[in-house]
Design brief:
Protein name (chain A): DUF3311 domain-containing protein
Number of domains of chain B: 1
Strand content of chain A: under 5%
InterPro entries (chain A): DUF3311 (IPR021741)
Largest sheet of chain A: none
Pfam families (chain A): DUF3311 (PF11755)
Helix content of chain B: 55-70%
Radius of gyration of chain B: 23 Å
Low-confidence stretches of chain A: 1-7
Radius of gyration of chain A: 21 Å
Mean pLDDT of chain B: 85
Order of helices and strands of chain B: HHHHHHHHHHHHHHHHHHHHHHEEH
Distance between the termini of chain B: 56 Å
Helix content of chain A: 40-55%
Structural class of chain B: mainly alpha
Keywords (chain A): Membrane, Transmembrane, Transmembrane helix
Mean pLDDT of chain A: 84
Largest sheet of chain B: 2 strands, antiparallel
Oligomer: heterodimer
Transmembrane segments (chain A): 20-40, 52-74
Structural class of chain A: mainly alpha
Low-confidence stretches of chain B: 1-16, 554-559, 562-575
Chain lengths: 91, 575
């Protein structure tokens, strides 16, 4: 059963710059956790917590913020386009 | 990873709290009452969002793909943060420090941006094509039975020791509560057998709906216990500053066997590569496990997954606090002694709770860990059973199996998997389960290129991916075999880090194997493309962007592959 390429057999249109922005938002938390040599130290302490510990715990919240922002951006970058009913795979 | 000899040092130096004080009646009663409540909820879950029939993998194995943001959040959280996490991460912090334990924090932070990237695509294509497992996707995408089997077997084998480790978590609680652990083997293991029999029964009847409901209780208990512990305990043992100093002093004390310090509360220059590769390697591997994929595919829409990527870090914060409890235990001079009279770091968190809390609250904490074992054990056994049914039984043994027949096979397979896990824990050394789990992490990461790259590109050749996988599996297993741990006197499979070739630094074996996997797959793709035909791709581009209201092939496709001659490797004609 081969299918005929139809008008919708392709990716829905997307706003490229916004997609790149979402990618950057997702990459930031990952990049922030790579330089272990830099953040693996005790000072400056915060309420008795070594920098090593509170820096990483801070990134839990920042990561949630960046990921949520990426969610808002990707929804705008590529709004969902419903599939046509006649498309291959329609039951 | 865990060094009992460290504990011997502490034991001699410190004023031990009250280790192994016999049966803690109040705590045990609380534990049993909560367990019974959870069991009743598990059985009643079959009625929740009830479909017309439970007799399909779509309903039994994926909860009808009906879970919204919050249910998915609890389910994924209940799935990924297991009882073993609650036992092992603080134990590693307690015994050897930041590199072995705290890497779990960056690991669970970077996991979510990573899954945000690809999981919504896997959801869409699975929703459209009726895929239940990642091997289903690989089968449809590359038209390769061999590659699909490799992915299925890897997932299945990597999950088994993970289920066994959940039992180790329950055992730790029972041992500290004063039952299990000693006496004859029957009395010792009976509580564990009862717990798992009840779990098996409600998983059988309710499928994925059971852990989805129980996950609420699990998380409520765990959040309660950890928040109370983190607020209350530091004031009791002299504040956070003192806790970090005490932990550091303890770990800097030379180990009696190796003559070197056991660890540090920071990451030393020699271990930075290990820390980063452990964090990123584990994060990439996390959503390759069948149980993570099962929980994700049970979500009702594409955006449910993405929203979850933004709210799941709440668990990472919890995990960080939990990890720090390992150092709180150092400062509190907790002395975890097993029922056999030997020091056992795995018992440090239950022991800390028993020593420092009133009995009734210790009971709640024990229940949190025990229920924390039941949720992931249920999801893992369902995921392993789905993988077996779809990608081994139906694919290779009974291609004509009906939807009802598949559901039946999967239910039985979920029982067999659990029986196997119980047998494993009762007959073999616990260390074997831990070693195999480390190995499972190395193996499961090797399915990453076929699954995740496949979601974006068909550039990789199916045979190149299969050979890349095989080379990486051999490299990873062989390298892990060569890792000895002098402190625990383990000759093989003593840890998950080894020297990275070329760079010469200590790194996570799974990560090195993944790089080898990708390089081999890429090089062979260029070569094989000229000689060996590609398989047929049954997916279309639009599949990767579908959402809940889009038309589907069917909710479940009993004959998912419309090409009959895949074994011969000839590409399907396409226009």
């Amino acid at each position: 059963m081969s299918h005929q390429p139809d008008s919708q057999d392709g990716a829905p249109p997307a706003n490229r710059p916004l997609q790149v922005l979402a990618g950057v938002l997702l990459a930031i938390p990952c990049l922030a956790l790579i330089p272990v040599g830099w953040y693996s130290r005790r000072s400056p302490e915060l309420g008795g917590f070594p920098f090593f510990v509170w820096y990483q715990m801070l990134w839990v919240f920042l990561c949630a913020g960046f990921t949520y922002s990426a969610y808002v951006v990707v929804k705008r970058a590529r709004p969902h386009r419903p599939m046509a009913r006649n498309e291959r795979g329609d039951a | 990873m865990i060094t009992p000899h460290t504990l011997a040092v502490v034991h001699a130096a410190a004023d031990p709290s009250r280790p192994n004080t016999g049966v803690n009646g109040v705590a045990l009663t609380v534990l049993i009452v909560i367990f019974v409540i959870v069991a009743v909820m598990g059985f009643m879950a079959a009625r929740w969002r009830r479909a017309s029939s439970m007799e399909s993998l779509e309903e039994w194995g994926l909860g009808g793909r009906s879970f919204g943001t919050w249910v998915t959040w609890f389910l994924l959280g209940g799935d990924l943060y297991t009882a073993y996490t609650f036992v092992a991460v603080p134990a590693a912090m307690f015994a050897t420090g930041a590199v072995a334990g705290f890497f779990a924090v960056p690991y669970t932070i970077v996991a979510y941006p990573i899954i945000f990237f690809f999981m919504s695509r896997l959801w869409s294509v699975s929703h459209r094509r009726g895929y239940v497992t990642s091997a289903d996707f690989v089968r449809g995408r590359y038209g390769s039975r061999g590659l699909s089997l490799a992915i299925a077997v890897t997932g299945f084998i990597a999950t088994m020791p993970y289920i066994a480790l959940q039992l180790v978590g329950i055992q730790a609680v029972l041992e500290v509560a004063g039952i299990g652990g000693s006496g004859n083997w029957f009395a010792k293991d009976l509580p564990l057998l009862i717990a798992f029999a009840v779990l098996a029964a409600y998983t059988y009847t309710s499928g994925l709906r059971a852990p989805a409901i129980i996950a609420f209780v699990k998380d409520a208990l765990i959040y309660l216990v950890i928040v109370v512990a983190v607020i209350y305990l530091p004031t009791k043992v002299g504040g956070w500053g003192h806790i970090f100093d005490a932990a550091n002093t303890k770990m800097q004390t030379a180990n009696k066997v190796t003559g070197k310090p056991n660890g540090s509360i920071l990451v030393g220059p020699k271990q930075q590569w290990a820390y980063v590769t452990l964090a990123f390697g584990s994060a990439l591997a996390l959503f390759m496990y069948p149980h993570s994929i099962t929980a994700s595919l049970s979500a009702k829409s594409r955006n449910t997954i993405r929203r979850n990527a933004a709210i799941l870090p709440a668990y990472s914060f919890l995990l960080a606090l939990l990890a720090l409890l390992g150092w709180v235990a150092s400062a509190a001079k907790t002395t975890p002694i097993g029922a056999d009279g030997k020091p056992n770091a795995q018992l440090v968190i239950p022991q800390l709770f028993e020593d420092q809390f009133p009995s009734w609250f210790a009971g709640i904490a024990f229940a949190a860990i025990a229920v924390g074992a039941l949720v992931p054990a249920a999801i893992m056994s369902i995921a392993a059973a789905n993988t077996f049914t779809r990608n081994i039984y139906k694919e290779w043994l009974r291609p004509d199996a009906t939807v009802e027949h598949e559901a039946k096979v999967s239910k039985i397979a979920s029982l067999v998997v659990k029986i196997f896990a119980v047998g494993f824990v009762l007959t073999m050394d616990k260390q074997n389960a831990i070693n195999l789990q480390l190995l499972g992490g190395i193996w499961i990461l090797q399915t990453f290129p076929a699954i995740v790259f496949g979601l974006y590109t068909r550039w990789f050749h199916r045979w190149a991916l299969l050979i890349g996988w095989a080379v990486a599996m051999v490299y990873g297993t062989w390298t892990a075999y060569g890792v000895a741990n002098p402190a625990t006197k383990v000759a093989h499979f003593g840890g998950s880090t080894a020297d990275i070739p070329i760079i010469g630094k200590l790194g996570y074996i799974a990560f090195t194997a993944l790089i080898i996997n990708i390089v081999v797959s890429a090089v062979l793709t260029v070569v094989l493309e000229r000689f060996v035909p590609r398989g047929a791709d049954e997916t279309i581009v639009a599949d990767y962007f579908a959402d809940e209201d889009d038309p589907r092939v069917s909710a479940y496709d009993p004959v998912p592959y419309d090409d009959a001659d895949l074994g011969g490797g000839s590409p399907k004609a396409s226009t």
